[in-house]
Specification:
This protein has 719 residues and is mainly alpha-helical. It contains 33 helices and two strands. It is 58% helix and 1% strand. A two-stranded antiparallel ribbon has the order 1-2. The longest helix is centred in the first third of the chain and has 24 residues. Pfam families: TPR_INTS8.
């Protein structure tokens, strides 16, 4: 057994503390040497390292708080139990608190952008420790922790701006942190015998009595307002951002002479990109400060233009097989019509080979005259005859040639000339040879009325949705009536209700009513009135069973499911009255969100009912872009559809906490089958047997979800 090392004595502890303090002071001195430039430091240090650096800065400026290396510096800086004037009563404390709050807001603004996802360095990080993922998780948690302090940072900066007593800021320089270290080193080198005279129990600390760099009132106010402007603009608080920009524009002429230049440390600390201020002025339609030139996004750029175009080069280009996939939109308006047309023809030829249609205005430009049409046809034929062209591309181009011949007479005429000259048949179908089958006229409306209003009892029983008519007709037919196979009741209602009445005389009658109710849902009723009325009649016909709370609850939830099915069918092709569709969407949003939110406290029977219609709920939430609501849904709702929705929502939201949660849970279920487990079972041929029980969603379920997601349009209803 190994002997444990003895605990360090007091002298060792003091030595380690002194060494640690010196190292941190050297680090802060390095920070000061780059003019406290956060942007430069972020390129070399991660959030954890910056947190530790600010922790030590606050510790040195507030020594009486005895802040530990792992303690939260925000507790000291944002202390609400002490007045700000008494808390920040020294220049170094004022600077440290102000600079810490500025760092918090910059970190929060940077956190709005998607984070770089750390890649695993092992094949199965769920079972094997991965140092890279562990480090990335710690950094992510650190960023999340500090972003939660942004409101406190905003309050502190606004309080500092409101204090008239702050005339200037005193910023520590490198000497403030290295003075004691150099002094000790000089004493040791001057007389080695004096080493014993140095008190080893004195831990070095910064000397804030050294000369400090001064930031005048206007300069630090512009810096502070600029940081607040970026924060509020990132969070869409546009009214506050506009007020801050007004203040910056007003203070801009009164800034120091060297503001933002490289002349001194104070000038370098106050650097703000003038184009950034100009960009904000463009966004808020404000006049920029004097000296800032606006650069409009659509300003015409100066580019080199040749006086004459090389016709020989253009000819070579037309005869070559080069592919013109990209076209500079800034260069196009300046080109000659001939060159513009050449680029258009080359580009459209390439797109047509891959099945892309040509817009009508593009077709009119190409078919404007005989020369352009002939050139277009020659280029298409050259592409078709190229040995490197795939057969599928040849077929696509042939179809487009045929289509152009039908649509444009000039194209058809030039194509006929080329056919005659080359002896090659390019049109395989003429318009005269197209034979359309005769279409019978629609019958008179009275015929439909006769069909729907009369007929034998069986026919009227199938068509009627009036219980007062259905009941006597069913009694009249008696045992002769057999329930049609397409009368399948709703699964949500039928799985509970039909077993309860199995073997009873009313079974066929109730099953028919439930089948008719589901038929109304499938054919798509105009509004919910008919389905609701017929559903209420069905509940009344059930008698005592219909008064059961579970049965009534299932009818209520089934009504929601039917409304969702109808909404998904109509979306995004809204009815002619868009207002009614918007109101229906808003009402469904309230119902769906209420169901999902109350699922956390539902009994198991109700929860299972909600889970059974999660396909419709998830489709509605995805189509209305409720990404944040999807991520915050109750963990009791477990469904493959919801898991996939959370994976999609993780890429649509800026909340890093929810992204991490999805990555830890749902994402690795998707990635599970991509990794081979070397310790798993293997077949006789040596191939591994993959465990497919951990799949996030099956293929049939995934196809179900894809059918109800309308990818062509995202419909957002604002409160």
């Amino acid at each position: 057994m190994l002997n444990e090392s003895p605990p360090p004595d007091e002298g060792d502890l003091v030595y380690r503390r002194c060494k640690s303090a010196k190292l941190w002071m050297c680090a802060l001195a390095s920070f000061a040497s780059i003019d406290w430039n956060l942007e430069h430091l972020k390129e070399s240090c991660n959030a954890l390292q910056l947190k530790a650096l600010f922790n030590r800065l606050i510790h040195f400026c507030f020594p009486e708080r005895n802040l530990g290396i792992n303690d939260d510096a925000g507790v000291v800086v944002f202390d609400r139990f002490q007045e700000i004037a008494s808390r920040l009563n020294k220049p170094e404390r004022l600077f440290a608190a102000w600079f810490y709050a500025m760092w918090i807001l910059k970190m929060d603004v940077d956190g709005q952008f998607p984070e770089v996802v750390a890649k695993p360095s092992v094949s199965n990080p769920a079972a094997t420790y991965d140092a890279r993922l562990q480090s990335a998780e710690q950094i992510r948690n650190c960023v999340i922790e500090h972003r939660q302090k942004s409101k406190d940072a905003v309050d502190l900066l606004e309080q500092l701006l409101a204090l008239d007593s702050i005339r200037e800021f005193n910023v520590p320089q490198m000497d403030a942190f290295l003075g004691d270290i150099f002094k000790e080193f000089e004493e040791e080198t001057q007389d080695l015998a004096s080493v014993s005279a140095i008190d080893p129990n004195v831990i070095p600390k910064p000397n804030f009595e050294t000369p400090l760099v001064v930031l005048n009132k206007v300069d630090w106010r512009i810096l502070t307002n600029h940081t607040l402007l970026c924060y509020h603009f990132a969070y869409n608080n546009l009214s506050k951002a506009e007020n801050l920009l007004v203040q910056i524009v007003a203070d801009w002429p009164r800034r120091s002479e060297g503001f933002g230049t490289q002349n001194s440390m104070a000038d370098r600390m106050t650097y703000i990109n003038p184009q950034e201020i100009g960009g904000y002025c463009i966004a808020f339609e404000m006049t920029p400060p004097e000296g800032i030139q606006l650069t409009a996004a659509n300003r015409e750029q100066e580019i080199f233009m040749a006086s004459e175009y090389d016709d020989e080069w253009i000819k070579k280009l037309g005869e070559s097989d080069c592919t013109m996939l990209a076209f500079d939109s800034l260069f196009a308006p300046k080109m000659s019509p001939k060159l513009s047309l050449d680029f258009l023809i080359e580009t459209k030829r390439e797109e047509m080979a891959y099945g892309s249609l040509i817009m009508p205005e593009e077709r009119r430009v190409i078919c404007a005259n005989e020369t352009s049409v002939r050139k277009f046809i020659e280029i298409l034929l050259r592409r078709m005859s190229n040995i490197r062209t795939r057969e599928s591309e040849r077929m696509q181009l042939g179809v487009f040639i045929q289509l152009f011949a039908f649509l444009d007479p000039l194209f058809a005429m030039e194509l006929a000339k080329i056919e005659k000259a080359t002896g090659r048949a390019l049109t395989f179908l003429s318009a005269e040879s197209v034979q359309f089958p005769p279409v019978d006229p629609l019958p008179d409306q009275s015929v439909f009325k006769d069909i729907l209003s009369g007929g034998p009892a069986y026919w009227r029983l199938l068509l009627s949705y009036d219980v007062n008519e259905i009941k006597p007709l069913f009694a009249q037919l008696g045992a002769k009536f057999k329930l049609p196979y397409w009368y399948q009741p709703s699964k949500m209602i039928g799985e509970v209700l039909l077993p309860a009445i199995a073997g009873q005389q009313c079974y066929e009658y109730i099953a028919m009513l439930l089948g008719k109710l589901e038929a109304l849902a499938k054919i798509g009723f105009v509004d919910a009135t008919q389905w609701t009325e017929f559903g209420n009649d069905c509940v009344k016909e059930l008698g005592a069973i219909g008064r059961n709370q579970d049965v009534q609850m299932r009818f209520t939830y089934d009504a929601v499911r039917v409304k969702l099915d109808k909404w998904i069918r109509n979306f995004p092709s809204a009815p002619s009255e868009a207002g009614a569709f918007l109101n229906a969407t808003k009402n469904l949003q309230n119902i769906v969100q209420g169901l999902v939110q109350t699922s956390a406290t539902m009994p198991s029977s109700s929860l299972e009912t909600v889970i059974s219609m999660l396909l419709q709920i998830v489709a509605f939430l995805i189509n209305t872009a409720e990404w944040d609501f999807i991520l915050k849904s109750s963990p009791k709702l477990k469904s493959p559809f919801l898991d996939i929705a959370k994976v999609l929502a993780a890429y649509m939201t800026g909340d890093p906490v929810m992204r991490k949660k999805v990555a830890d849970e749902a994402w690795w279920k998707i990635m599970h089958v991509t990794f081979e487990d070397p310790s798993g079972k293997r077949r006789n041929d040596g191939s591994s047997v993959r465990d497919r029980t951990n799949l996030l969603i099956s293929r049939p379920q995934f196809l179900q979800l894809l059918r109800v997601i309308k990818v062509s349009l995202i419909f957002i209803v604002k409160n």
